[in-house]
Amino acid sequence: MTMKKIFALTIISILLYPLLLYAQWLRPGPEEDPRDRDRRVPSSYLYLDAFDPIFLIDKPTANTLTIITDTQRETYQQYFHVNMRVYSNGGMIAGIDIGLTRALMLGIAFGGQNLIGSGDVMWNEAPGVHLKFKVLRELPNGFSPALSIGYDSQGYGRFYEEDNRYQIKSPGFYIVASKNNILSRAPRRNLTAIEMGIHGGINFSNENGESRNDMNLFLGAHLVLERELAIIWEYDSAMNDKTEKRYGSGSGYMNLAVRWMFLDQFYLEFALKDINKNTLDDDGNNVKYSNRELKIVYRRRLTS
User: Fold this and answer.
1) Is residue 155 within 8 Å of 163, Cβ to Cβ?
2) How far is the C-alpha of 127 from the C-alpha of 116, rounded, in Å?
3) Of 13, 47, 59, 269, which residue is 20 to 30 A from 278 by alpha carbon distance?
4) Which pairs count as long-range contacts for 270-276, CB under 8 Å and 24+ apart, including other chains?
5) H helix intervals, the chain
6) What's the pLDDT score for residue 303?
7) Cα–Cα nearest to 178, from 222, 216, 147
């Protein structure tokens, strides 16, 4: 089976799977034991956890696809994300991330450019693979952040075969810390629940280039404004890209996104990338415009 057929089947599955499950969502569930209500984490908190991002915009966080559902029994729920990202030059990437255990998650993605519009399709060289393991769990009432290690081979933008790299290098091997519950998590008016998280890490990309062995730093934050709305900010220092004038001027990449969770299982994300215009054009000049991307994510519990 060719890569084109595999990608087409992936896109069709992403679009149809939620529709096939829609009838199941409408079915009433079994009656709940009232004694379990006091132990269960409030639903508004679970809604907030949906905004604890496993990624910022391009870079990873220490969060995984696992949510605490019972504080006394320390029971967990594993989730999976199916996502599709549309970006410049008719580009599209589709992928899935799965929470395998309390600490381990695995993801895979694939895409290319000119999938939308005209011209020959330029497929990415290989599927991107993402593996993340949470080493330390965040303490809700303390200052200890979550800490994760992982590997992510998915870069973004055009893939340059002659240099064996993406325009925005993949993170590669990384270590990242996240602190999510900085602000009060108490909901107001039973509708609003405020949360802020900060994230920072170190990564070593394995994509070829003049400075491929250099260490890179990244950081970011997310702010939940309303029960359905969040803002994501990210800065990639691109320290491993400074000598490659073809791709960036050396000031790093600053990205900003708005995330809207319009259903419990779905959210949309609109991102402005490279708002500081670090990218260089073919003549070696800084670009005049930021990149715009749209992402849709379907999120569902892995086990019932």
Assistant:
1) no
2) 19
3) 269
4) 270/294, 270/295, 271/57, 271/232, 271/295, 273/57, 273/58, 276/251, 276/252
5) 3-26, 43-49
6) 65
7) 147
**Phi-psi category of 161—alpha, beta or left, where left has phi over 0 and alpha has psi -120 to 50?**
alpha
For 274: left if phi > 0, alpha if psi spans -120 to 50, otherwise beta; the answer is left
pLDDT tens-digit series, residues 156-172: 887 777 777 788 889 99
Place of tokens 């790299």: 165
pLDDT of 195 above 60? yes
Q: What is the mean pLDDT of residues 261-272?
A: 87
The three-point CA angle 289-114-165 to 5° equals 75
Ordered by start, the domain boundaries in the chain are: 3-301
Identify which of 292, 231, 225 has the alpha carbon closest to the alpha carbon of residue 53. 231
Q: Would you say domain 3-301 falls under CATH 3.30.70.270?
A: no
User: In terms of Cα–Cα distance, which of 291, 227, 300 is closest to 85?
Assistant: 291
- Return d(Cα 74, Cα 216) in angstroms, integer: 36
DSSP helix/strand/coil, 8: helix
Could you report the per-residue pLDDT of 3-28, keeping only the tens digit for each?
555 555 555 555 544 444 443 444 44
Locate 253 and state its tokens: 């990449």
Q: What is the pLDDT of residues 127-145, one digit of tens each?
A: 999 999 999 988 766 678 8
What's the pLDDT at 126? 86
Residue with tokens 């967990």: 76
Residue 61 DSSP class: -
Return the structure tokens found at 22. Answer: 């829609």
Decide: 216 and 237 in contact? Cβ < 8 Å: yes
Task: State the Cα–Cα distance between residues 152 and 261, nearest whole angstrom.
Answer: 25
CA of residue 221 relative to chain centroid, distance: 13
Query: Where do we find the tokens 């809604």?
Result: 47
